[in-house]
Amino acid sequence: MTAFIILFILIVILVMRVPVAFALAGLGAALLAYYPLPLNAIPQRLYGTMDSFELLAVPMFLLMSNVLLKGKVGKDLFEAVQSWIGHFPGGLGVATILSCGIFSAVSGSSVATAATIGTVAIPEMTKRGYPRHFVYGLLAAGGTLGIMIPPSIPLIIYGVISETSIPKLFLAGIGPGLFLIVVFITYSVLYSKISKNYHPIEKASWQQRYKASLRAFPTILVATSVIGSIYAGIATPSESAGVGFIMSMIVTFAMGRMNFAKLRDAVYDSAKTTIMIFMIIAGAKVFSYAITLYMIPQNVSELLIENITNPTIFIFAIGLVLLIVGFFLESLSMLLIMVPVLFPAIMEKGIDGIWFGLFFVILIETALITPPVGMNLFIIQAISNAKITEIVKGVWPFVLIMLGTAVLLWFWQDLALYIPYHF
Question: How many CB atoms lie within 10 A of CB 209?
Fold first, then answer.
């Protein structure tokens, strides 16, 4: 009963549009005061949240992402991929998804991926006759690859909260990430073949391909260096993020795409996002500490375990809860609120924590493109000036694809677990 009362109060506070960080921290502080517990536990928890080497990767990946965003490297990536496959049926759609996948490997952010590739791909695809709702849906869904394909900021935060290996989470993201790319590409090709408005483009010459690939090569080198250093065991995610940031600055300055004014803007944008993320994490830390003292995670765990014995129904119930929560909370808040509550039940059922991290992230991806708070919907709206209803119309096929992938992941767990446990 206590759990439902606390959840109800939290929902009321959030409906009143109180910022998530203050809602979590304020409610957590009130619960601690009522317990009663000395309130000096609150600053201790806040400091403990920031004192994490793993979380250092978050601002560094954000810096790298924003430098590449200001340097407009998305255009180079898109033009390079387009030069090779753009003339095939659905080629621009394929180029869009592949560009999203490559940029995801250096950003770790769905918002940055959707914004960077979207500004280039939307005009090109609409000019070639692709229906606008399809283009908007493709870009919104393609942007979600930013939090699945490593490095992924949500996977870093999940690893910190659940004390799960972040390198293994990154390795586990490869299989589902590549699978989603293949399915998105397949859908794009089939859609283009049945679309009456599609107009093919001319095949690029070898010289055009060479020039486009040469311009995109430095960005691909950055992505390879960041991911390769983690998987080879040469660097931790935090260290590789720092290397990626330095390389992205070298690349963008060398290409004449960066100046100190743009760098200042990139640092400022990264600082704003970092502060927002860390404030939410700090608030969630106070809240999770409070609900742990009230035995809420343990009670929820016992409730689920005692009433749902079938593992498939158990995961289905959790997935349904996460989908419903995703309609009302943005992805980071969803992660920080739900993982401390659900993770004990997951462990009690003997479900792999690495696998659950990827399952959770797929559902977060789905939340990113579902109304009313799907962040990628608003990003695409901002860069295209489209109506939100038109974007929502285009994303539903991709929502179904993602949900289908989540179901497949349960029945074929090696899609996520084979790489981290065999390499």
Answer: 16
Q: What is the per-residue pLDDT for 414?
A: 93
Residue by residue, what is the 3-state secondary structure of the chain? Answer: CHHHHHHHHHHHHHHCCCCHHHHHHHHHHHHHHHCCCCCCHHHHHHHHHHCCCHHHHHHHHHHHHHHHHHCCHHHHHHHHHHHHHCCCCCHHHHHHHHHHHHHHHHHCCHHHHHHHHHHHHHHHHHHCCCCHHHHHHHHHHHHHHHHCCCCCHHHHHHHHHHCCCHHHHHHHHHHHHHHHHHHHHHHHHHHHHHCCCCCCCCCCCHHHHHHHHHHHHHHHHHHHHHHHHHHCCCCCHHHHHHHHHHHHHHHHHHCCCCCHHHHHHHHHHHHHHHHHHHHHHHHHHHHHHHHHHCCHHHHHHHHHHHHCCCHHHHHHHHHHHHHHHHCCCCHHHHHHHHHHHHHHHHHHCCCCHHHHHHHHHHHHHHHHCCCCCCHHHHHHHHHHCCCHHHHHHHHHHHHHHHHHHHHHHHHCCHHHHHHHHHC
- Taking only the tens place, the pLDDT of each residue in 136-192 is 999 889 888 888 887 788 888 898 888 888 889 988 998 999 999 999 999 988 887
Average pLDDT, integer, range 250-258: 85
Return the number of other C-beta atoms located less than 10 Å from residue 109's C-beta.
Answer: 27
Q: How far apart are CA 386 and CA 388, in angstroms?
A: 6
Per-residue pLDDT for 112 more than 80? no
Q: Would you kindly state where each structural domain of the chain is located, as residue ranges? A: 2-422
> With contact defined as beta carbons under 8 Å apart, do 63 and 270 qualify?
yes
CB 219 within 8 A of CB 251: yes
Give the model confidence (pLDDT) of 307-357 as tens digits: 777 888 888 888 888 887 777 677 777 787 788 878 888 888 888 999 999
- Quote the distance between the C-alpha of residue 202 and its chain's center: 34
